[in-house]
Amino acid sequence: MSSLIATTAVRGRFLDIQNTVAQAREIHDQVRYLEDGLLISENGQIRWFGHWEEGQHYLPDGLEVSHYPEQLIVPGFIDTHIHFPQTEMMGAYGEQLLEWLNTYTFPTEIQFQNPAYAKKIADFFVQELLKNGTTTALVFCTVHPQSVDALFEAATAQNMRLIAGKVLMDRYAPEALTDTAETAYTDSKALIEKWHGQGRNLYAITPRFAPTSTPEQLEKAGQLKAEYPDVYVHTHLSENHNEIAWVKDLFPEREGYLDVYHHYGLTGSKSVFAHCVHLEESEWDCLHQTDSAIAFCPSSNLFLGSGLFPLKKTWDKEVKVGLGTDIGAGTSFNQLQSLNEAYKVQQLQGEQLPAFEALYHATLGGAKALSLEDRLGNFNIGKEADFVVLELNATALQALRQSKAQSIEDTFFALTMLGDDRNIAATYIYGQARYVKA
Ligand code: GUN
Ligand code: ZN
User: Fold this and answer.
1) Which ligand is nearest to the CA of 208?
2) Residue 433: beta bridge partners?
């Protein structure tokens, strides 16, 4: 039976959110927790999911079942904003956004004109995602097309669903990091033709941010998006006060920062704007009206001192939001750690972040922010079989805390407060274990 080769079965405790929601208060009713569940995947997709007692009868003869009785299995984490070339510069000291870019980021990114270097870091980066239970990410490369090739090649080797693109940047950066309006267009177009929809790979048109693109380049980016409406747009928005003032100086004819992107046709249901810490009311309305999404990057916002993202506002304004690490401004690849920081960002604003809402943002909500909720984010039959096996008691301290957990909600909350890569027991991509902790 040849289909057996691509069939896997996993038994254990499963936790997910069954449906996307419009309001946070609706999440609780969508929580699905199976104490003893079974997931059968075939050719990368979930063919059966439910209670072990029932599902055991559907197991193909001779199929080995991977059993995780002590762990917790959740959908793979989705990172809606990350820069792979910045992996090596995490933890760069002392600066806020614009100085940080000039001092650390641009010199680092110049190295990616070398394809061998790009490959080395792309391979490392994909391993790091797997080690941290992240199964899909929306990724910035550098201005160099070879950096995109390196990343998609590394992702393809793991069968991982990644969205990525070449940076567009034709001013206010070192010469070795700039393209032109024309090459931004032609290089991106060639990369779209090469990679978008190839295997699980998807492409994102990636202007770095409004200050580093001329109006001519943004025009070209909009033209490309019009030609390929199915590809993503991925950029930064309203992260830092000096950045926002700079955009207003550079584009006085526009109503504000987001209006720059909107004017050039770069908003929409496949547009993801990282940060959005300091949006004006009209900008929230524009994001809602255009069905654009935000990537909330708490560890980065704290590290660069950018500000406190008003997560609650995404529910009030009905704007899609996912969770991002924003490596290398973020301080961990691990989305449990991002949720830890997200909780504190909420606390500093007098709000909470309930554990199941946290799970939603890291999984199904992230999938929705990427318009991939029909394929990713939970264990519904027909979805792609990307999931992560979480160790609950990776340290003595965690074991002590978990022994006091009051409920599965409390178990997951404690995991997000105390957990990190030590808690990732295994990461499954398209039904196959691609990482297993030693
Ligand atoms: N804004 C423009 N470029 C970047 C970047 O590389 N990182 C972050 N955090 N913000 C940016
Ligand atoms: Zn970023």
Assistant:
1) 1
2) 428
- The C-alpha atoms of residue 314 and residue 147 are separated, in whole angstroms, by 33
Residues of the chain with pLDDT under 50: 1-4
Question: Quick one: CA dihedral 384, 360, 90, 301, positive or negative?
Answer: positive
Collapsing DSSP states into helix, strand and coil, what is residue 236? strand
Enumerate the H helices of 114-180 as residue ranges: 115-131, 145-158
Q: Does domain 8-76+378-436 bear CATH number 3.40.50.880? A: no
Sign of CA dihedral 269, 271, 323, 302: negative
Ligand 1 pocket mutation, candidates 169, 208, 243, 247, criterion most atoms within 8 A of CB: 208
Spatial separation of the C-alpha atoms in residues 168 and 187, rounded to whole Å = 10
Q: Residue 380: its pLDDT value, please?
A: 98
Q: How far apart are CA 164 and CA 218, in angstroms?
A: 18
- Residue 139: its H or E element: strand 134-140
Q: Which-ligand-closest: CA of 82? A: 2
CA atoms within 13 A on the CB side of 293: 27
12 and 68 Cβ atoms separated by less than 8 Å: yes
Q: What is the pLDDT at residue 1?
A: 37
DSSP element (H, E) containing 234: strand 232-237
What is the predicted pLDDT for the residue at 341? 98
pTM over 0.85: yes
**Superfamily of domain 77-333 in the CATH hierarchy:** Metal-dependent hydrolases (3.20.20.140)
DSSP 104: I
Q: Which of 84, 95, 105, 143 maximizes ligand 1 atoms within 8 Å of its Cβ, making it the mutation to test the pocket?
A: 105
Domain range summary for the chain, segments of one domain joined by +: 8-76+378-436, 77-333
What pLDDT, on the 0 to 100 scale, is given for residue 6? 87
